[in-house]
Design goal:
- This protein has nine helices and four strands, in the order ααβαββαβααααα.
- The chain is of the alpha+beta class.
- The protein folds into two domains: 200 residues, Multidrug efflux transporter AcrB transmembrane fold; 73 residues, Alpha-Beta Plaits, CATH 3.30.70.3400.
- Strands 2-3-1-4 form a four-stranded antiparallel β-sheet.
- The longest helix has 39 residues.
- The radius of gyration is 23 Å and the shape is elongated.
């Protein structure tokens, strides 16, 4: 914990970069947020989604995702197409398969509307308060719960800020899968933090001592476990990112960023916050 100021500085740099990206460029919203065209086709043979995506992008047609909905059936989610672009789209599909059968072709509004976003934020706020109170109750101190929640928000800002930058430089879209990855990151972050906190409480009951030494001991003892757990997840996510195709590429990237951030924040953000809070509280009590 002697280097906790450095940990805070590193986190501050990444969060500042993310905030800059959000203010400068914002998030690159996908079809789920801004609406677009959904087309579903059945082909005689399986097609290469990568090749079709490249051909569509070559014609200026932005493709959000291509999903397999059945045997040799594919659903394309794209930006709204005008009649000319629709003809280009069909011609490209015919190069992949001579006679694709159109099952559905429609332009839709956003799947994730303002009302749903508002409800999601309310649900996240309620869940955060519930986690804060539950952790505070279990560890008999509000600073445990507050530090865990602040570390969770740290991971949220890291992921959102990273996608603001990735959206501008690499075209990473924010869609329903991103929201799923964000919520998964929050749960992973809190879970890993609780493991370290539980070791602090366990050592405090067995050996006693000040919070600073207990935090160092707990972080050292849980570090290998956290890294081994995270590496098993990272190997899978890297494989998905490289071999999973364009449909889930950015979903895997979001989970990868969230996993790395969550693994970092538990020992290097949540615990230092707890120690700093404890030191400040101790000084205030001493002065009184």
């Amino acid at each position: 914990m002697a280097y906790r100021k450095i940990y805070f500085f590193v986190s501050g740099i990444f969060i500042a970069l993310g905030i800059f990206g959000l203010l400068k460029w914002g998030l690159f919203l996908g079809v789920d947020f801004k609406g677009g065209t959904i087309a579903e086709y059945k082909f005689q043979d399986s097609i290469s989604t990568e090749e079709v995506t490249q051909k569509l992008e070559g014609e200026g047609i932005e493709t959000s995702s291509i999903q397999i909905t059945g045997e040799k059936q594919y659903m394309f989610r794209m930006s709204p197409l005008n009649p000319n672009e629709k003809d280009k789209f069909k011609n490209i599909l015919e190069t992949a398969d001579k006679s694709p059968e159109e099952l559905r072709f429609e332009t839709v509004g956003p799947t994730i509307g303002p009302e749903l976003v508002k409800k999601t934020l309310y649900a996240a706020a309620i869940a955060s308060i519930a986690i804060l109170l539950w952790v505070a109750y279990q560890f008999k101190s509000i600073m445990f719960g507050a530090s865990a929640i602040l570390a969770m928000f740290h991971d949220t800002f890291m992921l959102i800020g990273a996608f603001a930058l990735l959206g501008h430089f690499f075209g990473a879209e924010v869609d329903f899968l991103f929201v799923t990855a964000l919520l998964t990151t929050l749960s992973f972050s809190v879970h890993d933090t609780i493991v370290v906190y539980d070791r602090i409480r366990e050592s405090q009951g067995k050996f006693g001592g000040n919070l600073y030494d207990l935090a160092n001991k707990a972080t050292t003892e849980t570090m290998v476990r956290s890294l081994n757990n995270s590496f098993t997840i990272l190997f899978m996510l890297v494989s998905l990112m490289l071999l999973g195709g364009s449909t889930i590429k950015w979903f895997a990237v979001a989970l990868l960023i969230g996993t790395v951030s969550g693994t970092y924040s538990s020992p290097f953000v949540a615990v230092p916050l707890l120690v700093t809070w404890g030191n400040i509280s101790k000084k205030v009590i001493t002065r009184k």
